[in-house]
UniProtKB/TrEMBL annotation:
Coiled-coil regions listed in the entry: none
GO cellular component: cytosol
Stored CDD domains: HAD_TPP
Keyword list, A-Z: Hydrolase
Protein name per its UniProtKB record: Trehalose 6-phosphate phosphatase
Recorded family membership: In the N-terminal section; belongs to the glycosyltransferase 20 family. In the C-terminal section; belongs to the trehalose phosphatase family.
Any single biological process term in GO: trehalose biosynthetic process
Length: 241
């Protein structure tokens, strides 16, 4: 938390946490960090700071369509020790991080195919992430909410001149794609430095990678060291995100 606090203490920085977790947990975990932006449930909710209200970034949807996935998920829970179902405000998630790694991965692939077939005519999306299968409303993603952040900053005439985005999940790929295209769409400063980083060396839309979370922490601490907590009041600089 100390590192995050030091980053957003510099008024030139905009810091966003983009998570699949629910907004109640995120509000509790990051309560000491008043000025950071948070997105919850992979982009379904977002808020710009602790004092702002949560905004829904998703369209109205029929949760009954999502509930159609629950019987299928229950079948895989019975067949996969260590798996579980989580009900979110925006969808259903089948977790298999506590299952046998090889078997859990095979079951996840099979479930993905099964659910895509069952829900083919419904207005829902079936996504595979890190140890999860998620069924949610269409039009909800980390990429869409990051696009909203860039657009809002650009409309406020504060286009970012430095962007660093780090993620370790398959669902972060949508975010990396938006970031790589943001420059050509005029959402960033023309000379912006853009770094999309995945954690661990693997196929990704991100151009860069960091070996592990320890390296991520080290890099953020280095950025915190060079951040300026006391900018001039007369200064209106470009922003880093």
């Amino acid at each position: 938390m100390r590192t995050v606090n030091r980053l957003y203490d510099d008024s030139k920085n905009i810091v966003f946490i983009v998570s699949g977790r629910g907004r109640d947990n995120l509000s509790k975990w990051f309560s000491p960090c008043g000025e950071i932006g948070i997105t919850a449930e992979h982009g379904y909710y977002m808020r710009w700071s602790r004092d702002k209200e949560w905004e829904s970034c998703g369209q109205n949807f029929d949760f009954g369509q999502i509930q159609m996935a629950k019987p299928v998920m229950k079948l895989y829970i019975e067949a996969t020790d260590g798996s579980s179902i989580e009900t979110k405000e925006s969808g259903l998630v089948w977790h298999h991080q506590d299952a046998n790694p090889g078997f859990g991965s095979c079951q996840a692939k099979e479930m993905l195919d099964h659910l895509e077939s069952v829900l083919a005519n419904e207005v829902v999306a079936v996504k595979r992430g890190q140890f999860i299968i998620e069924v949610k409303s269409q039009g909800v993603s980390k990429g869409i909410v990051i696009d909203k952040v860039f657009t809002s900053i650009a409309n406020d005439e504060r286009k970012a001149d430095f962007v660093l985005c780090i993620g370790d999940d398959r669902l972060d790929e949508e975010m990396f794609e938006i970031i790589e295209n943001a420059m050509s769409r005029g959402l960033l400063h023309p000379n912006a430095a853009v770094f999309a980083c995945t954690v661990g060396q693997k196929p990704s839309k991100a151009k860069y990678y960091l070996d592990d979370t320890a390296k991520v922490i080290n890099m953020l601490e280095a950025f915190a060291e060079i951040s300026d907590p006391c900018p001039s009041l007369d200064e209106k600089p470009e922003n880093s995100l």
